[in-house]
Amino acid sequence: MHKKEPFIINRLKSFGFAFKGMLILLKTEASIQVQVGIAILVTFAGFYFNISKTEWMAQVIMIGLVLSIEGVNTAVEAIADFVHPDYHKKIGLIKDVAAGAVFIASIAALIIAGIIYLPKFI
Ligand SMILES: Nc1ncnc2c1ncn2[C@@H]1O[C@H](COP(=O)(O)OP(=O)(O)OP(=O)(O)O)[C@@H](O)[C@H]1O
After folding, report:
1. Which of 41, 46, 90, 104 has the highest CB neighbour count under 10 A?
2. CB 63 within 8 A of CB 42
3. Closest alpha carbon to 25 in 57, 72, 64, 61
4. What is the ipTM for the molecules in this complex?
5. Which amino acid positions bind ATP, per UniProt (predicted)?
6. 99 near 73, Cβ under 8 Å?
């Protein structure tokens, strides 16, 4: 059990751990780095094409969704490798399913990107 500390100190500490986790993801995960790169590109595109407030909201939600699910996917992979470092069919299934979740979010993000930007080209 943790030492009893004031509520606000505990909340601040949790915030610090979460921030540390985000930095670990950004520094070590190639897929997150690629996704952040895409997020930066579409943010520039948003300004360039002067997209509407609603389009910005959809874009920000999709960026957050893809990055956060990718973060959870990374955690699932780490747990899988920790509990069973050797090859196992079940571990393969667990990792594939976690990756599938990222895939679903990415398809949704692509569709949203199409809805926002395709009309600007045709
Ligand atoms: N221990 C294992 N047992 C069985 N199959 C595995 C195992 N480790 C990985 N795999 C298979 O290899 C795939 C890739 O796993 P890996 O841990 O290398 O993820 P990754 O490609 O690095 O993912 P990301 O790019 O999201 O970090 C898994 O989806 C799974 O199909």
Report:
1. 46
2. yes
3. 72
4. 0.89
5. 29, 77, 95-96
6. yes
Q: List CB contacts of 116: < 8 A, sequence separation 6 or more.
A: 49, 51, 55, 58, 59
Which of 77, 86, 97 gets mutated to test ligand 1 (max ligand atoms within 8 A of its CB)?
Answer: 77
For residue 44, what are the contacts with CB-CB under 8 A and spacing of at least 6?
none
- Measured from the CB, is residue 95 less than 6 Å from ligand 1? yes
What DSSP element (H or E) covers 16?
helix 7-28
Pick the CATH number of 30-121 from 3.40.109.10, 3.30.930.10, 1.10.287.3610, 1.25.40.10: 1.10.287.3610
d(CA 88, CA 90): 5
pTM for the structure as a whole: 0.90
